[in-house]
Design brief:
single chain, about 1300 residues, six-stranded antiparallel sheet, about 5% helix, membrane, transmembrane, Receptor-type tyrosine-protein phosphatase beta, FN3_dom
């Protein structure tokens, strides 16, 4: 009954962050491959299967590994196949999840043992702590066992023992190990651009060491550090900045590893040589830098200034230059360049400023004093700190002075100016002026000239812009690329050789530039519009803005030249507006810029979203938005993913969504659409969450504890809330993360049935599922053994805490039930267990039962050992020693103690093993009475049994036994014994040494008679001397009683020569019979020997009528007795007895001859045919005849002659008829004559009738002789009758005559035949 082989496999379970636990459904093998099928509840799990050769098998212990493929479209069912295995080899299969690599479940498989097996005992022992797990698998079940909740990282020894009845096979051992737990809370922190810190928390179970592995994105191993199992962190240095590394922490134990991995990024390095330059621009800044060392993902450039929105740019890592435009002139900006890599970043900052704009509308006019000039201007756009005013005379600076920021004019008082001097060309006129072009013409001057010099200056500030030299024939000059809305002075000087005339000047305004990039936007506002435009080049006084709706001017506003936007309020939601914008300078108006814009439609109101308690349904309704709306656009999105978009007419403000995920929070956008604008109203609502599946509450064998677990609810939810209540009273509740599916309640009442509600919460919605769970009942308290006896134990206890249904009391011995459990009510606190085995140590289990749960409390109790029985104190025939023996009492004992006392004094004590039951005490006094106590010991309990004994007294002498004349008595005599004695015991034993009777005689008596014994039996008389109930060696003598005579001797049968006797066996015993037959003169006729079983005897050849005496002598040993009886043989009957009429019709002569033997006389009797006696006559022994007269003539009589001898007689009889016999002969003739005459007519009748009558009337010996004679006449007539038709009538007549003759011939025999018949009837 040896187990052929078994194997151990370990499978992974969820321990941290993964849910790749498995359920093995099938293991199959072929000669060179093995397949494992299993299911998992995890998502995106991958597994590997390893087959390791059994270490105890021959050959190399190599390993084969294979991946596991999903079955079909299912992602939860997998099949792993490993080919190329050696046939007939035992392999250990290890299934591991690649996500966590952890195994704390162990499965054991084995082959069936040969022969009959009842069960297998599977034992799993922790090699370190010695903790043992056991389970029993029936042979009819699948030979597989699983152990769960094992300690990770532990080596275990597995043994399987096959059992059949009380026989067990040697155990088969294997070793297996659980993989260590992977570390928990693995975290990576970047300490600097080249250093990382890794920290973790050790998982449950045992670990020998940790190993930290660091690999770069190219999977090149950079670091491999071994860390003791007491450490929980490690630092890694010498790394590249901004690089993503993979960090793996392996836990090593018992030759197995498990790993946990994460990623970490070093802090990227800073950029260097960061600059922010304006390059002379008022609205542009250029940033530049040098790329950092190491890796990075992106640059994040941020330009910020006080009071302005921040500008952010995301740049590719290969960009090192960036231009910001549209900035405010003269403003100081701060630039931050942040390098990012994997969520880590570092930043570098610098500052820069744009160039301020020149002041616009600069003009200088003389005052009335003739020596003072007034310089006026308007503030420029942007920021500035102060003004710097320079007054020049040609190339000479006459004044350089700073003016505060708020000033808008300055006075120059400079002596030496020539008042009223005018220089310039004659009749200089402006031909054309637009935004960028200024054209002047003039009339020729008087005189001669060589050419003209035309100078274009800006008035404010007075700056020469362009100077052109024209030929003498030129009459006009055009300047291009001028600044719009700027006041220019054009001076024309006539040149003649080296002489120049005074300048003739003319001033003109360029036209204001029209507004470009006019944009009208609501910016999501329902009642306002913002118009934005780019500031026009040149100088402006203001902008004029018109808001038009449906050809009606709603608003007409002017804004300053520095303004680039305007907002219109109190507009109608969703309405279409047109904005007309013109720039104004010195009364001049630019060309119009027109743009349309629409206010955002108003949002809907009173939005209502309801799931109606359904898991996959949402209905949306709202109040229509005010203002103008084209339609509504309802969008349902889920986690940034749009699921449904529905366009709804503005007349039907509602929408329904189906087939949604339960418990999911959906984003619902209801957009009022007006033109291209949408105004979204966002609302979030959830579908009703699904309830959990199969909630289960288990007590985990604890009396104040319930563990609730369930299958995850479908769909989305936020958390679980678990309530526990009793009698509709909520007692506790817990909030459980949605990633978990269990919770624990403690502090509960033992044995109580609770209702557990598991609520799935998603937002404000909940769905509950309920189950019932009962805590493990508490054990009884203060369980004590209150009383004990040899066959009973009494236990008492205090009631168990909490709720319970009843108690069950079980009695165990060697872990086996002794009796069926006893059920007691919850109010009972004691129990008496009876009919127990004395002296046995029991385990008494008092089990508290609440529902299906039970909790046992046990106590050991030992019954009082039973007293020994049948204490026998034997002296073994020795007068100086006593041998004590006893029969062990019922039950168990540890041993015995035997005490010897004489009166009240203890003489000796002997310990005796429990398997022994005798002890001998020596050196004792003959004839002395001793007391012996045998003490049963079981544990600390004792039970005594006491008996007394005495040494052997002296034996008697001169014993004699004499038989008496009586067959039932024996006489015994003896001489007194020497020494002390109480008396004598006489025992009468039969030949089989069985006691027949006994008698006790006091001391001094030396004679006794036994009566009432069995006759003929041999007895032995045993005489013993008694002293204190002890008998001496017996002295015996034998004798036999006389046998009893045979009983009931009688004559069984007698004939003339034969006598048969019968008797009954005599009382008692005998050996055989002697049988004697004596004649009347006491001479011996015959002697025979009969066995004891004989009860009859017969004698032959005796004399008829003679008397005999038979004697039966009974023998028993040498003793005899006899019985006798007289008997007579039957006298012989007379011979030749006859009875005849003697020619007389009324008389009958009877004569005979004497028979042999003795006779005393005759007795004659005559009887009528009907049987009545007619006459009787006694005659002497010499008579030989006698005549009866006076009889009826012709009657048949019966005569009887009795031969007499003593009281016996012997009959002889005969028949005789008196005379007158003629009538008998005539009767047949009278009948036959008519028959002869009728022969021709009745031919067949007479022929057939004799044939039929012959067998009936004749004696059987005569039938064969007569029948052939009768057949001849029958056959011949019949033949003739057949020939009648063929013969002539004559022939027929002849034949008939012949037949008559034949009948006459036959008539005589027929008559004789009838006479014989009549005689036969008469004799009968």
């Amino acid at each position: 009954m040896m187990i052929k082989s078994f194997r151990i496999t370990c499978c992974d379970v969820i321990l941290f962050q993964t849910s790749c636990s498995v359920n093995v459904t099938d293991v199959s093998s072929r000669s060179r491959s093995v397949a494992l099928t299993f299911t998992t509840a995890g998502v995106s799990c991958t597994f590997s299967l390893t087959a390791d050769r059994d270490p105890g098998a021959d050959g190399d212990s190599g390993a084969n590994a294979s991946g596991c493929d999903p079955d079909g479209e299912s992602k939860n069912s997998f099949t792993c196949r490993i080919p190329g295995l050696d046939p007939g080899t035992l392999y250990c299969l290890t299934l591991m999840s690649k996500e966590d690599g952890e195994r704390t479940h162990m499965f054991v498989f084995w082959s069936r043992s040969a022969g009959h097996v009842d069960w297998y005992d599977v034992t799993l022992e922790d090699s370190d702590s010695g903790t043992t797990f056991r389970t029993r698998i029936q042979d009819s079940a699948i030979r597989r066992s699983g152990f769960s909740s094992l300690v990770p990282g532990t080596s275990y020894t597995v043994s399987v023992v096959a059992s059949a009845g009380n026989k067990t096979a040697p155990p088969v051992h294997r070793r297996a190990s659980t993989a260590p737990s992977s570390v928990h809370n693995l975290q990576v922190a970047s300490l600097s651009s080249d250093r990382l810190r890794v920290s973790w928390r050790g998982g449950p179970g045992r670990a020998e060491r940790f190993r930290v592995l660091l690999t770069d994105p190219d999977r090149v191993l950079w670091k491999n550090i071994s860390v003791p199992n007491t450490e929980t962190s490690a630092e890694l240095d010498g790394l590249r900045p901004g690089t993503l590394y993979a960090i793996t922490v392996e836990t090593e134990a018992v030759g197995l590893t498990s790993r946990a991995s994460t990623q970490g990024v070093t802090v990227p390095a800073l950029v260097s040589d960061l600059r922010l330059d304006n390059n002379g621009s008022s609205d542009r800044l250029q940033a530049s830098w040098v790329s950092p060392v190491g890796g990075m993902d992106v640059y994040l450039a941020t330009l910020s200034a006080l009071g302005l929105p921040t500008q952010e740019r995301r740049l590719h890592p290969n960009i090192t230059r960036l231009v910001f435009s549209g900035l405010t002139p003269g403003r100081s900006y701060q630039l931050c360049i942040r390098t990012t890599a994997g969520g880590q970043s570092s930043e570098t900052r610098t500052r820069g400023r744009t160039v301020p704009l020149p002041v616009p509308s600069l003009s200088m006019t003389p005052l009335s004093d003739g020596s003072t000039l007034r310089l006026s201007w308007t503030p420029p756009r942007g920021d500035w700190e102060r003004f710097s005013v320079l007054l020049r005379d040609g190339l000479t600076v006459l004044m350089n002075q700073s003016v505060s920021k708020p000033s808008q004019h300055h006075l120059f008082s400079i002596p030496g100016l020539v008042p009223g001097r005018l220089y310039g060309a004659e009749q200089l006129l402006v031909r054309h002026a637009d935004e960028t072009t200024l054209s002047v013409f003039w009339t020729p001057p008087v005189g001669e000239w060589d050419g003209f010099t035309v100078l274009l200056r800006e008035e404010k500030p007075a700056t020469a812009v362009v100077q052109k030299t024209l030929s003498w024939g030129a009459r006009e000059c055009t300047f291009n690329t001028l600044t719009a809305a700027r006041l220019y002075t054009v001076s024309v000087t006539t040149n003649s050789r080296n002489l120049t005339s005074d300048q003739v000047s003319v001033t003109a305004w360029t036209s204001p530039a029209p507004v470009t990039r006019l944009q009208v936007s609501s910016h999501g506002s329902t009642d306002s519009l913002q118009a934005q435009w780019d500031l026009v080049s040149g100088d402006l006084d203001s902008y004029r803005v018109l808001l038009v709706q449906d050809s009606s001017v709603i608003k007409n506003q002017s804004v300053s030249a520095e303004t680039s936007s305007i907002v219109f309020h109190a507009l109608r939601p969703g309405a279409l507006y047109r904005v007309v914008l013109t720039s104004v300078r010195a009364g001049q108006v630019s060309r119009q810029a027109v743009a349309e814009g629409r206010t955002a439609p108003a949002a809907v109101g009173e939005v209502t979203v309801s799931n109606n308690g359904r898991l996959d349904f949402l209905t949306v309704s709202w109040r229509p938005a005010p203002g103008e709306v084209d339609s509504y656009l309802v969008t349902l999105s889920d986690r940034q993913k749009t699921l449904h978009t529905v366009s709804v007419s503005k007349s039907s403000p509602e929408c329904v969504f189906n087939s949604l995920v339960s418990g999911r929070l959906y984003n619902i956008s209801i957009a009022s659409r007006s033109g291209p604008h949408l105004n979204h109203t966002f609302i979030q609502e959830r579908t009703q969450p699904s309830q959990v599946q199969n909630p289960t509450a288990t007590h985990a064998a604890r009396d104040d504890y319930l563990k609730v677990y369930w299958r995850q609810a479908a769909g989305d939810f936020d958390f679980y809330q678990v309530f526990i209540k009793h009698n509709n009273l909520f007692l506790q509740n817990q909030t459980v993360l949605k990633t978990q599916s269990e919770c624990v309640f403690t502090g509960l009442v033992p044995g109580r049935l609770y209702t557990v509600l598991v609520s799935t919460w998603s937002g404000k919605y909940e769905t509950s599922a309920s189950t019932h769970g009962r805590t493990f009942p508490a054990a009884v308290r203060f369980l004590v053994l209150a009383g004990r006896g040899t066959e009973d134990l009494r236990v008492t206890w205090s009631a168990a805490l909490g709720d319970l249904d009843h108690y069950e009391v079980q009695l165990l011995f060697n872990d086996m039930k002794v009796f069926p459990p006893i059920t007691l009510g919850s109010a009972v606190g004691e129990c008496v267990l009876s009919s127990l085995t004395p002296g046995r140590l029991y385990n008494i289990l008092v089990t508290t039962i609440s529902g299906p749960n039970q909790k046992a409390q046990f106590i050991e109790g030992r019954t009082v050992p039973s007293k020994v029985k049948n204490i026998h104190i034997s002296n073994s025939g020795d007068s100086s020693s006593l041998k004590v023996s006893w029969t062990p009492g019922q039950g168990d004992v540890d041993g015995y103690s035997v005490f010897l006392y004489r009166r009240d004094r203890q003489l000796d004590v002997r310990p005796v093993l429990k398997h022994h039951s005798q002890v001998t005490f020596g050196s004792l006094q003959p004839g002395q009475t001793y007391r012996v106590t045998v003490q049963s010991v079981s544990g600390d309990l004792l039970n005594n049994s006491t008996a007394t004994g005495c040494t052997v007294p002296s034996a008697v002498t001169g014993l004699q036994v004499e038989e008496l004349q009586s067959s039932c008595s024996l006489q015994v005599s003896w001489q007194d014994a020497l020494g002390v004695s109480d008396g004598y015991v006489l025992q009468l034993l039969d030949d089989r040494s069985c006691l027949v009777t006994n008698s006790t005689q006091p001391a001094g008596h030396t004679r006794f008679r036994f009566d009432g014994l069995t006759p003929g039996k041999r007895y032995r008389v045993l005489v013993q001397t008694t002293s204190g109930g002890v008998h001496s060696l017996g002295v015996s003598a034998g004798a036999r009683t006389r046998p009893a005579p045979a009983r009931g001797l009688s004559i069984q049968a007698n004939t003339t020569t034969h006598l048969s006797f019968h008797w009954s066996p005599p009382d008692g015993e005998f050996d055989f019979y002697d049988i004697f037959l004596y004649k009347s003169d006491d001479s011996l006729q015959e002697r025979r020997r009969g066995q004891s079983s004989s009860q009859q005897c017969s004698f032959q050849g005796l004399r008829p009528g003679a008397p005999y005496r038979m004697v039966v002598v009974t023998h028993s040993g040498e003793q005899t007795s006899q019985a006798s009886i007289w008997a007579r043989s039957v006298p012989a009957a007379v011979v030749s007895l006859t009875a005849r009429s003697g020619n007389q019709s009324g008389a009958l002569w009877v004569n005979w001859h004497r028979g042999s033997g003795d006779l005393s006389g005759y007795l004659l009797s005559l009887h009528e045919p009907v049987g009545s006696q007619r006459a009787a006559q006694a005659l002497g022994s010499g008579a030989t005849e006698f005549v009866f007269s006076g009889l009826v003539p012709g009657r048949l009589y019966r005569a009887e002659v009795w031969s007499l001898s003593g009281e016996l007689s012997h009959r002889a009889s005969t028949l005789g008829r008196t005379g007158e016999m003629l009538l008998v002969i005539l009767v047949p003739l009278v009948v036959l004559v008519p028959l002869v005459l009728l022969v021709p007519l009745l031919l067949p009748v007479p022929l057939v009738l004799p044939v039929l009558l012959v067998p009936l009337v004749l004696p059987l010996p005569l039938v064969p002789l007569v029948l052939p004679v009768l057949l001849v006449p029958l056959v011949l007539p019949l033949t003739l009758m057949l020939l009648v038709p063929l013969a002539p009538l004559v022939l027929l007549m002849l034949l008939m005559l012949l037949m008559l003759l034949m009948l006459l011939v036959l008539l005589v025999p027929l008559v004789l035949l009838m006479l014989l018949v009549l005689l036969e009837w008469d004799e009968a």
